[in-house]
Amino acid sequence: MDEASRTEDAVGYERKDLDPRSIALFGAGLALVLVLTAGLITLLYQYAAKRYLLRQPPAPPIGVTREATAPQLQVNGPADLRAMRAAEDRALNSYGWVDRNAGTVRIPIDRAIEILAEKGLPAREEGNRQQATGNRKSGAKR
Fold first, then answer.
1. Contact by Cβ (8 Å): 108, 94
2. Which residues pair with 106 in a beta bridge?
3. What's the chain's Rg over C-alpha atoms?
4. Rounded CA separation 33/27 (Å)
5. Which residues lie across from 99 on neighbouring strands?
6. Could you report how far apart the first and last alpha carbons of the chain are, in Å?
7. Is the distance from CB of 91 to CB of 109 less than 8 angstroms?
8. Does the global pTM surpass 0.90?
9. Looking at the DSSP assignment, which residues form a beta bridge with residue 104?
10. How far, in Å, CA of 112 to CA of 100, rounded?
11. How many other C-beta atoms can be found within 10 angstroms of the C-beta atom of residue 133?
């Protein structure tokens, strides 16, 4: 046997495979890569945050506030429906002004039906009716 193999057997482990200096250099290199990666990611996040802020719409002028209001929830739906229908019934069954300047009034619906039954629907004059049918026939020939 060789003398080198005898000393390895006497020591109990292999000295030539594990170099503590190489392990320390690898650990230091790995730590440096981790620190550089963390720094690079931090810089990228800061850059993205600046770009995000630049894309935001400008703030409203001083004194103008656009506060969001809470949604208006319907607390008692059936009561609201009854109130709406009562208001509609009052409008359908009462007299009132729609536009006082134009002279437009509102009359009860029952009275409007009576007037319509007495007077009938407005009809075209006979001459206008013939012109309208003549225009349709001439339009169809084209």
1. yes
2. 96
3. 47
4. 10
5. 104
6. 120
7. no
8. no
9. 99
10. 19
11. 10
